[in-house]
Amino acid sequence: MNIAVLTKQVADLVEGIEIDASGRAVDRDSIRYILSESDDHALEEALLLKERSQAHVEVFSLETGEVRDGLCTALAKGADRVVMILAGQETPPSNHAAARMFASVLKGLPFDLILTGVRAIDDLDGSVGGLLAGYLGLPYVGLVRKVELVDGAATVEKEYPGGFAAELGVKLPAVLGIQAAEQPPRYVPVTRLRQVMKTAQVEEQEAEPASEEPVSVERMYKPEEGAGAAMLSGSAEEIARQIVNLLSERRVTR
Amino acid sequence: MGVAQVPSIPETPGPLFPELASAEEKFRKCIQCGVCSGSCPMGEAMDYAPRKAVKMLLEGRFNEVVESNTPWLCVSCHTCAVRCPSQLAISDGLFPALRAAVMAEGKALDQDLQKALQNTYLYGNPMGISPKKRADWAKTAGVPVPIISQLRRPVDVLWIVECYPSFEPRGQEISKLLARILNALGVDFAILGHEERCLGDCEWLAGERGLFEMLIERNIEILGKYKFREIIMTDPHSYRTLLNIYPALGGRYKVKPVVQFLAERLDQLKPRLKKKLNTTATYHDSCCLGRKTNHYEEPRLLLRAIPGLKMVEMVQNRESSLCCGGGASTIYLDRFIQERMKDRLADRRVMQAAATGAGILAVACPFEPARFEDAVKLTGNEEKLVVRDIIELLAESMEVQ
Fold first, then answer.
1. ipTM
2. What percent of chain A clears pLDDT 70, i.e. is strictly above it?
3. Residues from B in contact with A at Cβ < 8 Å
4. Which CATH superfamily is domain A2-206 in?
């Protein structure tokens, strides 16, 4: 069983982000990068599968942000091999371009499962997983929260809106977009992380250069403040009375 | 196997756990008297209270102890350590080592604790707030709070504010009051601002020694950049760590807690304590100012100096003070602990304070206001008891609020 996990680094919102001078992109100098949250879950699910079925786990990351740190963390958590995909461009690729890059690297490799986060906070136009599956001619299931391997196939639990979920059978090889791993991503003690960082072998692989981007950003801007917000003040009882009045004025209450 | 497995406690002793360098030999000095278990406020909830845990480890039953709830229930109140006739480092040595073993084996951590550790790794504080915002509280202090990198000159006093007093809302208010008191006393002080990071007490005691090492390396480097005569600290946990643990790792500083610094200036302070507070207060000895560093008198000296304020003692005071139940990273394990104990230590402590008849529970540790106020509400003492930091009481009497 060979599992590939596709990851990328995204802006850490804790540190805040700024728009650059062009007004069409995030100012990348102002960013601190962290592993995309749902990619972290994809890695956790892969490691759980490894523990259950001795799978071999390889982690690929596009060359944006502090990729080496992210890949070393993956090794420290238990991944078997990590690869940085050289994109040959400065700006982060769109999801279409990212999917094509991943496809060019993965084509012909003997992976049974390809896991990636179902989305990222900087997604422009949907998820990489579905596009990649299209390029590779493989089945795709997104919003997955559980994966079990049974006789060369996978049974996955997929989330639907409104609190529904379904169990689906998927033939392998397949691409899965992970919503959440079965357990929260594991902790890696800093001692182990630092040891790995000293000795880690991060392989590099060239992706086919992306052709022209099909979608371009015209304007990027921070959320504009709306008018009409009113702050309520007073004791808890007074505020509660004001809320009741506001709601009944607007005929929300009977 | 048998006893041969015992060295797995000090497997990776390193310089961080000097107490454990010869742990096996030391813990063989354990006479199994049980003073530790009898003194332990968490013993009743532990699968194996300290005496039993030590016995099991000496018998080679390492995995049983590591897999039990015992490692995560120590609040590092240090009562066992100060009472142990064999002077074994139970709270500082054994428990961090057990926790380190849990982590090294890759066992899942409590999610609240994991988040706090991850945040501290990424941002230098357990709350997960950008380090750029560390000195934001100072902007509304109403008095100058210089940042040492901007002063470009040596200062007399470097104030290490630490995480809770920098980021927690009540802590920030107390920090502003202290800034006003220091200004009123004409102290030449500065803070580290955005360069300040967690000093690592919780991380060390949580068994995350790699993170602790990382924080120490960074903090020693930052502190080495500046010239100051002494360091004052608002957080007793960090004070204790900087005082007792950093020197062995190359960080030697003249350091004192704020209560000591202010008590040394009592002559200067007294004429400024003008407003009578006309109330009765009882003081909670925090573990890090009390049992760990013996600052029992300075907080009481400060409180007694406030006109109109009468002092009463709780049934457990000074050396036998009852922990708030938040030390050694257990402040992040409240939910885990609550599921295993009928009433939390903070609730018990607040009941003791209420029983004195005092109107004020005075504290000198930034963990306490939030913990005890919560407990005051839970125990139905809202009408009777108010939790106040000594800084808040001094500021009120000095009328620098």
1. 0.85
2. 98
3. 12, 100, 103-104, 106, 108-109, 111, 114, 117-118, 121-123, 128-130, 132, 208-211, 213-214
4. HUPs (3.40.50.620)
